[in-house]
Amino acid sequence: MTNTAKQQIIFFVGPDKTGKTNIAKAVSASSGVPYFKASSEHASFMNKRDLFINQLRYADMRVFDLIKQTGLSVIFDRGYPCEYVYAAVTGRQTDLEMLRLEDDSYASIDAKIVFCYRSSYDNLCDDIDPTIDSKKLQELSDRYCEFIDKFTHCKVMKLCVDDENLSEQSDRVLAFMSLTTENHDNSLVPKRKLVNIIEDGSATTFIYKNFELQSCDIIS
Question: What pLDDT, in 10s, does the model give residues 192-201?
Fold first, then answer.
């Protein structure tokens, strides 16, 4: 794996149907940075939406404190930027003061945000809530742009996923994370390149070529 001494905190955000999870897992497998997604997300979104504001107020800063004190690296599949966006689009209560504190805190340790988006959401709908149709997905995307342009102090990468090229998308994020190596012509290339993906039911296997060792790593 391509490990780095520098702490890496990455938030993958964006509307549903943008491939966030696959990209985040591919980057995690390549970089060695652990991947995290809240296991309660689906149930909370559908049935207990007040949990989001409670988590923001009483849990999120404890997570930040843990990360800052221990120097842990982590790739988040969704995170506090999503609270800003979904609260605005769905009309549920949030706490902008806590969001401001959390964003400033993560910016202070050089956390980064990868915003995955499409140029069009025509004929798409949210996996969790089918009432979030193509129009709502576009509204979510627009709100993420608002968050990026007017709210966050973190570094942001806008990643268009129209090409559906997971290998290329993963490479671009690794470069954004500065997990690259210098080529003979002084260009920057990822230290490992995704060369194949094998889907087997619920399991996904990523196969990477290691440029430095000229070998292949298989990561499930």
Answer: 555 565 666 6
